[in-house]
């Protein structure tokens, strides 16, 4: 019954498995910095777009709205972010300690991520993969905006 798979379903499964494995590797790499890949992603998004609201942040990361809320509480407890009420809007920005944490981890993580791809893909293959993944991401974003994520049989 479930033995038949399409090329698209195999691609989807490979992408899911790669993402899971890559997140595990990244989490192991970031452990000495006291970070997870999800925390690093959130800190980088805040660094890139600060000040921003929790809703704006949730749209940019791979963590659910509830997950973002819990993670922000942890990051605030660590002293890496600050939340500030401006008029009726609560914004999020990095503290000096948060900037130091990102600065400490950024270059080593960049080198590590680069090595993971350089070890198995040529520059041309990386370029092609980036093109394909960008196209898929834009297509998915378009579908989400159009409401195509709802079950359509």
Count of DSSP strands = 2
- Please state the CA-atom Rg, rounded to the nearest Å: 18 Å
Strand order of the largest sheet: 1-2
Largest sheet: 2 strands, antiparallel
Envelope shape: globular
Features:
153 residues, two-stranded antiparallel sheet, 2 strands, 69% helix, globular
Please tell me about this protein's structure.
The protein is mainly α. 69% of the residues lie in helices and 8% in strands. It is built from six helices and two strands. It has helices spanning 7-30, 37-49, 54-60, 65-78, 96-118, 123-146, and strands at residues 81-86, 89-94. A hairpin with a 2-residue loop joins strand 1 and strand 2. It is globular and about 55 Å long. The mean pLDDT is 89.
Can you lay out the helices and strands and say which pair or pack?
Blueprint: H1 7-30, H2 37-49, H3 54-60, H4 65-78, E1 81-86, E2 89-94, H5 96-118, H6 123-146
Antiparallel strand pairs: 1-2
Write a short abstract of this structure.
The protein has 153 residues and is mainly alpha-helical.
């Amino acid at each position: 019954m479930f033995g038949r798979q399409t090329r698209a379903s195999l691609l989807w499964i490979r992408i899911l498995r790669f993402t899971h494995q890559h997140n595990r590797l990244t989490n192991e790499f970031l452990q000495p910095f006291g970070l997870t890949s999800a925390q690093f992603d959130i800190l980088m998004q805040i660094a890139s777009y600060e000040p921003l609201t929790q809703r704006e942040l949730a749209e940019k990361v791979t963590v659910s709205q509830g997950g973002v809320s819990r993670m922000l509480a942890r990051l605030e407890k660590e002293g890496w972010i600050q939340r500030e009420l401006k008029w009726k809007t609560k914004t999020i920005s990095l503290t000096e300690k948060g900037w130091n944490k990102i600065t400490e981890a950024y270059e080593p993580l960049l080198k590590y991520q680069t090595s993971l791809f350089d070890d198995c893909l040529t520059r041309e293959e990386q370029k092609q993969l980036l093109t394909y993944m960008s196209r898929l991401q834009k297509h998915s974003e378009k579908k989400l905006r159009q409401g195509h994520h709802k079950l359509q049989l």
